[in-house]
Amino acid sequence: MGVLTSWAARFRLRQYIKASLWIVPLFGLVLGVLLAELALTADSADWPPSGWHYSATTASGVLSAIVGAMVALLGFVVTIGVLVVQQATGTLSPRYMRLWYRDRLQKAVLATFTGTFAFAFSLLRSVETDSVPDLGVTLAGVAVAVSLVLLLIYLNRFTHSLRPVAIAELVTRMGEAVFTSGAAAIRDAAPRGDGTVSSDGPVMRVRTGRGGAIQAFDVAGLVAEAARHDCVFVVARLIGDFVPPGTVLIEVHGGTAKPDPDRVTDLVALGSERTIEQDPAFALRVLVDIAIRALSPAVNDPTTAVQVVNYIESFLHTVGSARLPGRYVLADRDGHARLVLPGRDWENFLQLAVCEIREYGGSSVQVCRRLRAMLEDLLDTLPQSQHAAVRAEIGLLRESVEREFTDPARRAIAQQPDHQGIGGRYP
């Protein structure tokens, strides 16, 4: 297919636009030039009031100062961005950067600065001794005021939002939203009957021509393509998996005609890294990364790890309340099974949430006590079907505590559940 005619190519383009820091500011630059032309056209009207008229010298000085100020502020924001990258990769998680690049406020600030710069610079060429763009100079001053307010909001937001707890809250909300919407879509597309798929071997295997991480599936497109050929697509790899070239992506079962492999692979988006759009486990991965980074000997901050566990517990309650068979069958409009997607079950999510934190934080009293409280809360609130995996994790945590704390008194303290790690009470 053409460069942008396939679903996968359009998905990658959307991902690039969301993560780009130059596209929105470029639109701001163009909009600033256009608004300057409109201001010059409207300047012949009897506005602004007589007290707001400017001399040519004053107008040139004001506009020149605005141009210089906007360039300086752009440099300042870029410097903040570099510092954020250093902090995120050093003390948080490199995976978080993919989310930070998409921040709309940051793009709005950059667009406002570039737009104000272009607006003021475009007005400078029209300043003459007998002709001054009074309306434009006034609007340029208003734009500077708006830019300064946005800058203050930007600084306030990122000085507060770059704390590990704030990032954990943001990532948890995103992960829960993706999980909830995905679970609803799967329920709505449930097939009639038990949704069984023929046990006969596949009549065709669709392989990928390029490598990369599986970022998303065009579920509706795959269902429609399978219905067109009266067959069932069975996806062979989990979303988030990295697949080398030549890997089997989809197995085709049944059908009267074989689908075009290129058309099928164009419905699967591959990229350089995982995304959160259809992969709620990636949100959990980011949370665990932040927690274990805090537990590294270089940082040694178990309190931050405990705070992140608070949000991991919230995420696990959302996931554990849903039924996760680990295999999802989706149907077409007529109720016939057309697409089988592999998925993570409750045990997979729980292991991802607990395993590494337990291993890296096994020597921390805070972490052990907080994990124990979290696991016992899950036993208390989740359905009985989820308890086996939780009890298994409690057993592994108990073994880790016994291995790390050889003194009976210290071991007894580490095995007590505590919602705050140390200093709280457990009912």
TrEMBL record:
The keyword Glycoprotein does not apply. Residues 408-427 are annotated as: Disordered. Keywords: Membrane, Transmembrane, Transmembrane helix. Pfam families: DUF2254 (PF10011). It comes from the Bacteria. The chain crosses the membrane at residues 21-42, 62-85, 105-124, 136-155. InterPro entries: DUF2254_membrane. This is DUF2254 domain-containing protein. It comes from Streptomyces tanashiensis.
